[in-house]
What does this fold into?
Amino acid sequence: GGTIEITSEAPVINTQEQNFANNVNQTQINNLPINGSRWSNFALLNPGTVPDGNFGLISFRGISGLLNNNTIDGGDNNQAFFAEERGRTRISYSISQAAIREFQVNTSSYSAEYGRSAGGVVNAITKSGTNEFHGGAFYYQRNNKWGARNPLAVRQELVNGVFTPVGYKPKDVRHQFGGTIGGPIVRDKAFFFFSYDQQKRNFPGLAVFGQNGFLNLSASNKTALLNRGLTDAQISNTLAFLATLSGPVERTGDQKLFLPKLDWVIDEKNTLTVSYNRLRWESPAGVQTQATNTRAIDNFGDDFVEIDSLNVKLASTLTPMLLNEFRFQWGRDKETQFSQPPIAGEPTNAVNGRSPQTILVGSTTFSFGMPEFLDRAAFPDETRWQFADTVTMTSGNHTVKFGGDINFVKDDINNLRFIGGEFNYTGATTGLADFIVDYVNFQTNGAIRALSSGASPAGRCVSPVAANQPTVFRKAGKCYAGNFNQGFGVLGLTMKTQDLNYFVQDDWRVTPRFTLNLGLRYEYQRNPDPVNVNPLLPQTANRVSDTNNFGPRVGFAYDLTGDGKTSLRGGWGIYYGRVINSTIYNALVNTGVGIDQGQRQFTASANNLPVACTGATPALGADDCPFMPIYPNLLPASN
It folds into this structure.
């Protein structure tokens, strides 16, 4: 007698397709170790893949991680604005690892069916219910009490009158838990699957100055400050205020994910699948995720993400040789980030009640106040409508696929960089002293600035604006020698893009051992019309509209020995990555037109100040640089 073993597993060696692809199956997903349960990182197991930066992006064959394509159940899992997976990479993942059945990683020479990518394509399939009830639960914990202290985690504490670095180890504990369940609703007809995943993390940050002795003022600078009308108490109080800006930052993260899925066998020819994925992420002080940061305790920013996606698929067997698959998706990815309220003692202005971002530059940089990139009420708030249809036809030794995929994306953007202003105090030896002058001037309602008269150094900055300028020139309140930055204009706009994609692919089994793969893909990305054309810069009226994106694909696969154990494969093709929506947005809004239509950045620095501010014989009794604000005030929008 003999035994016949039938298996549904795919052969180990690919002898029929030209692509360089690998399937990550349920066994691998369940058993391979992975940091943080971000399932798409398993793609790094494939040759030709490396991390792209430190935030979870993956580069295929050296191509930017912003030019990949990620799909879930055939629907886009991409964010068009930043060209990353939905939710970007600050969150742990946008769909639970426990909900993924398997996924395919296409690294090169893939079929014309796949596109909108110059790098790799990752296609994931979620789990479904069956005629039997199945489920599982999981719980993971990471806790830094089991590890060593970060050697960079130090605080500046006053010890015997000297600011001294003191080691510190904040807690970092992460709980990940959830489960899945699936089974029949009506046996052989309808099935359900449900996944729940939650992550709660308590990981206080640590604001550090980044160097020993950052707050230790030199004797010469202290003398200069005393000569400018400041007192010992004012100097000490300013340094004590700066010391309060470092230390532990209460920071948490709470991510909730759930995915219900329904499979319905309508009849022997049609099966309908509907799934919905929902994510909510809340992370006070979580924009900055590093263990230590040279940003103050109020300079981290609060982070929020909301993701919803509905996927519908109708698979139809029209004839034994003709199959059709229709897919629809509605998705939304809303990301918001907000600044934190000022802490006690911080200088604020009347524009928004916030402290402007203040940067102290020595041998390292430390910043406090409202970060330059916040607030982001919508960055982005992105909605996607997707329609796709694929027909598969088998005729003799040809398997032909053809179809189309249409994506409508709307991005609502609400963000203006430097809206809260930014003041830079530079100089390895004098930057700190100049900040003290301006801070005391703020605390005394301009009393120090009022001392400025004639050639006296009183009420003036410690350092000159440039090496050849008199030390007594700049007045208190304007001692920032580095850049001053402020953003003006609209907070954002709404923009729409449409992606139209069509393909045909013929896998021709020329002989039982040789397969020829022929394909052609066409992609058209319709971008919005310009909205803020600058008549002085005609290029701002241009719109990227590339209509000749034809991508031919040619490949082959040859079973060298005829036993399925040795395969020779190769391919060639032209592949197109999308123009990233954030690039389009910047071209629309940053055209230099009036602030009632676009956005404009004002920057002034020691290198581009006018003669009125830096002349060799300035009018010492006059107000220097009238267009430069007195710290921490901002310029009015009319400037």
